[in-house]
Design goal:
The protein has 488 residues and is mainly alpha-helical. The chain has a single domain, classed as Up-down Bundle (Amino acid/polyamine transporter I), CATH 1.20.1740. The protein is built from 22 helices and no strands. The longest helix has 33 residues.
Length: 488
């Protein structure tokens, strides 16, 4: 089991890898859009509160479970609260891997757009809508770049924890921050950029008092920081016992927010400075993640002085963020297979091949990708709930005292952690109910239809199929992913 005992070289190496894991496309394309739509500074205040109440306690919990067991999510749950609950760890691992299947397709899009930018495609007169349509409706292109993204993840992870994950993060994260900062500075120098800054930071009492803003803020916190994904549970396997890392989750969470803010400063001023009208700017912000990024932002680069260079920087940032998140998702699968006794390199190869094969439907069909994003993105809330349940079953105070505070003597975790762990399931339940309610309201005629892309029916049916299988096969899953003969 020597492969499993690789460690990050030091605490800084782990922190950089953890921040790179948390920073994904959601920071760059989702946060600016959501902030602009929900009161800017009001949304930001709520997001910070949500991170403190929900994300940080869950991240700390995942860290504690991963460090205590040194196993992938299935074995971790089996060791931590009993093999009868291994299916919960399997659920968390499955949801993360299911997201990986289509996330690699999105990562492929960003790589293709880096190539477009380098080729100078975003010059005056380019029809960016036609450019996107030509690429996204060409399966040979989308499948090829899906393969490229999975191939990059394979090359990085095949090198191991230090030479692969840590080295990539040490190079990528500073470069990503530098490129985003350069983009923000350039955007802020554009005439009319002040309106975009106002959209990002203005505080409106009406939004602060709106339940929808609070729900959107907590949803952004849940999806952006990586809480409940089993990602930190996995990276915790590779932390050195002497390195106190529980309190470091504050660093990870707020670094994630800071990068999102810098991305907002690069995107919103650009939109409002270069849009021909306020209506056009609002249309861009309402066009969804894909429309905002690959159509509207691309078009605005054609109007910006030096836009070709800025388009290269922007899509490099997006590609870096996508790949950094992708490798952490693949690592969840790898860690579970290594816990089962597989050689690490064999586990990396198998997981990447599985990711490529199971990602083909999403690479072929945008509707299928949208459906999987909807179903398994919301399923992360259940994963977060399972993390809180595991801590409560183990003993919240016991975990705080014996794991969090024993492992991080430089930063003692107070009893606020206990309160927030108990509050988490309530908040997650509210968000969960609200999202299902919105699904029904948005599609009143088809909300029950399991074949509709965004229906409640398609979510529930797919969740039930997976959960019934995992619960029914719990004993076999527990024995496979946490065999008794594996040396702890």
């Amino acid at each position: 089991m020597g492969d499993r005992q690789q460690f990050f070289s030091n605490k800084l190496g782990f922190l950089l890898a953890a921040i790179a894991m948390a920073v994904g496309t959601g920071n760059i394309w989702r946060f600016p859009r959501m902030a602009a739509a929900h009161g800017g500074g009001s949304f930001l205040i709520i997001l910070i509160i949500a991170v403190i109440i929900c994300s940080v306690p869950l991240l700390m919990s995942e860290m504690a479970i991963g460090r205590a067991t040194r196993k992938g999510s299935v074995g971790a749950f089996g060791d931590f609260i009993g093999k009868g609950f291994s299916w919960m760890g399997a659920w968390m691992g499955f949801v993360c891997i299911a997201i990986m299947f289509y996330y690699s397709v999105v990562a492929g899009w960003t790589i293709k757009y880096v190539i477009f930018a380098v080729q100078g495609k975003f010059s005056a007169g380019t029809d960016t809508n036609a450019l996107w349509e030509a690429f996204s409706t060409s399966p040979s292109q989308t499948i090829f770049f899906h393969f490229v993204a999975m191939g990059l993840a394979f090359l990085i992870l095949y090198q191991g924890v230090v030479k692969g994950i840590e080295r990539f993060s040490r190079i990528l994260l500073p470069l990503l921050a530098l490129l985003l900062a350069a983009g923000a500075v350039r955007a802020l120098t554009l005439p009319g950029a002040g309106l975009g800054v106002s959209y990002l930071f203005s505080i409106d009492t009406e939004y602060l008092l709106s339940p929808r803003t609070w729900l959107e803020g907590f949803t952004q916190a849940a999806w952006s920081t990586g809480a409940g994904w089993a990602l930190l549970m996995t990276y915790a396997i590779y932390t050195r016992p002497k390195d106190g890392v529980g309190g470091s989750m504050f660093v990870v969470a707020y670094a994630d927010i800071l990068i999102a803010i810098v991305a907002g400063l690069a995107i919103l001023p650009t939109i409002f400075a270069l849009s021909p009208s306020i209506d056009y700017a609002n249309e861009a912000l309402e066009s969804g993640n894909v429309g905002l990024t690959f159509i509207y932002m691309s078009e605005l680069f054609t109007k910006m002085p030096g836009g070709i260079f800025m388009s290269i920087a922007f899509f490099l940032c997006l590609a870096f963020a996508a790949i950094s998140s992708l490798i952490s998702q693949v690592e969840v699968g790898v860690a579970n297979l290594v816990t089962a006794g597989w050689d690490r390199k064999k586990a990396v190869l198998f997981t990447c091949l599985l990711g490529f094969g199971c990602g083909l439907p999403s690479a072929y069909s945008m509707n299928f990708l949208d459906n999987q994003d909807f179903v398994w993105g919301v399923a992360l809330l259940i994963s977060g709930m399972f993390t809180a349940v595991a801590v409560m079953k183990f003993g919240v105070e016991k975990l705080r005292r014996e794991h969090l505070n024993q492992s991080d003597r430089n930063m003692k975790i107070g009893r606020w952690y206990n309160l927030f762990i108990y509050v988490n399931p309530v908040i997650i339940s509210i968000i969960f109910i609200w999202l299902i309610y919105q699904s029904i309201v948005d599609d009143p005629d088809q909300w029950w239809n399991p074949f509709s892309t965004y229906s409640t029916g398609t979510m529930v049916i797919q969740w039930l199929i997976v959960m019934v299988i995992l619960i029914a096969a719990n004993r076999k899953i527990a024995n496979f992913f946490n065999p008794a003969n594996i040396e702890d």
